Known about the structure:
By secondary structure, the chain is of the alpha/beta class. The protein has helices at 4-15, 35-42, 77-82, 89-100, 126-143, 153-160, 166-171, 187-192, 197-212; strands at residues 61-62, 68-72, 109-112, 147-151, 174-176, 179-184.
Amino acid sequence: MDIKPIRQYIEYLKLSGINNVFLSSFSAKKTPIDLESLAKIYSNCEKCTLYKGRIKFVYGEGDPQTKLMLIGEGPGADENVTGRPFVGKAGQLLTKMLKAINIKRNEVYITNVIKCRPPENRNPLPMEIKTCLPYLEEQISIIKPVIILILGRVAADALLKMNTTLTKYRENIHFYNGIKTYVTYHPSALLRNPGWKKYAWIDLQKLRDDYNNLEY
Length: 216
Ligand code: URA
């Protein structure tokens, strides 16, 4: 934000003999919008049939003021039970991946493209993604991250809509609504193919350098 005009205006006020200005609800940070309240409102969603297998709606969690948002595919069994994203085996690996680049889990915001678990962990159907996407779009517009990290091809296709391979997605930095967006392997894929971890590490290092260079 360019604060020069504000300074000039304050100078002008001073010169006009005004020494005090009361600002009722001014905040230099982003407006805090209560994502937890939104999660409660949406938690009984029945817009698609996935609610039938739902134990808990998995909206997302983390710091709503963060500059970095992580987006996975959809809740698995553990997430369905706890209502928290990425808490199962893949989630534990994700937490370790973040730790490896000195990022604490609670300093980012973690969510998924779809908020209810598909049966047997199948890939979400295009209709389910389309129906659920407005929740994610709203989360992104509230959080206004500076960087997004997409985990896996399904989430990448849902947001970037290039319908390409993960390898191709990883080749470039993307812009989702003007937000710098990285794509890397889904941690579940890394659990199945540990040999890919070296490539994920390359992606994570790029992300870390970018994140560390952000101005606060
Ligand atoms: N896989 C995902 O994509 N998201 C989760 O929350 C857990 C596993």
